[in-house]
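Field log, afternoon session.

UNIT: design team B
ACTIVITY: writing a sequence onto a fixed backbone
BACKBONE:
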């Protein structure tokens, strides 16, 4: 059971729907929950030799809650001086918030862990270590290597970043495009024949799976169904149980206590694609009733009580 006296701090943009869902659940439970982001005022931190560090982030001067959900820290937009000075101010705000929050005893999940897990090569290697099938993959900026790989079978190109700027969908490529890899290293993957896309949400040792029928003509479901309306909660069975077991193992291998993962369902079983440590799940039917309470349990409970 969770102690209702637990306090939770959410690091997230003020308009983040997932953070708001978790906040409403905590309010309903009578648990004090607060926000911290780039717009928060009156941040104060102190730490003296021989004393425990303390942090206050509100005018009342409460100490930092013992559990922090690091959902996302947006970079503040500053326009008060020159471009260089505005950039420095933004960096200082980000560094200050990161520093004081990471002093908390428990962060779900630390940003450096999240950043590492977001790397597609790191995720693929973690999946392989736990025995999950993954697509044949090549990352290269060598056109000869790219051409040889593409000649071996149907191939897609996938972006490795999701930062500022264009974030293209994964799509089919042919040998005639191989020369384009000289602009930047490109992630190429062999196309996997699959009947369904699967999105798995893991929290601690719990996992839930949603699936959607897959079209042979479209390799990235986001292009045709950006809202994810085609996903349905998967019925429990041996195949889904195996998938969810592997997903929890992948998250654990990456040091994550929560994750959103993309998989494919094939005739021979699930194939891992990638993990997004703080991905979207509210678009999945029934997820607010299933994922949000489980995440709140995970955030509010003493670590020794989780899953008890």
């Amino acid at each position: 059971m969770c102690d209702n006296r637990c306090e939770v701090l959410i690091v997230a943009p003020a308009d983040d729907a997932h953070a708001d869902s978790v906040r409403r659940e905590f309010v309903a439970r009578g648990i004090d929950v607060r926000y911290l982001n780039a717009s928060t005022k009156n941040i104060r931190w102190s730490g003296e030799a021989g004393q425990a560090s303390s942090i206050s982030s509100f005018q009342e001067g409460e100490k930092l809650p013992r559990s922090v959900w690091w959902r996302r820290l947006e970079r503040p937009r500053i326009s008060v001086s020159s471009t260089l000075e505005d950039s420095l101010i933004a960096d200082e705000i980000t560094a200050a918030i990161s520093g004081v929050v990471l002093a908390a005893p428990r962060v779900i999940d630390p940003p450096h862990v999240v950043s590492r897990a977001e790397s597609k090569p790191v995720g693929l290697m973690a999946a392989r270590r736990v025995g999950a099938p993954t697509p044949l993959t090549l990352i290269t900026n060598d056109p000869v290597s790219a051409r040889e790989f593409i000649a071996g079978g149907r191939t897609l190109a996938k972006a490795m970043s999701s930062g500022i700027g264009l974030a293209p969908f994964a799509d089919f490529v042919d040998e005639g495009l191989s020369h384009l890899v000289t602009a930047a290293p490109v992630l190429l993957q062999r196309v996997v024949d699959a009947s369904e896309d699967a999105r798995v949400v893991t929290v601690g040792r719990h996992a839930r799976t949603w699936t959607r029928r897959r079209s042979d003509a479209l390799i990235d479901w986001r292009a045709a169904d950006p809202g994810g309306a085609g996903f349905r909660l998967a019925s429990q069975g041996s195949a889904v149980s195996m998938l969810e077991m592997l997903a929890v193992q992948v998250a654990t291998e990456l040091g994550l206590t929560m994750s959103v993962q993309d998989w494919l369902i094939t005739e021979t079983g699930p194939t891992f694609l990638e993990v997004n440590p703080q991905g979207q799940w509210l678009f999945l039917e029934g997820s607010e009733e299933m994922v949000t309470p489980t995440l709140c349990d995970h955030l509010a409970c003493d670590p020794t009580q989780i899953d008890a």
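LOG NOTE: The chain has three domains: 8-108, 115-132+193-277, 137-190.
NEXT ACTIVITY: expression trials, pending approval
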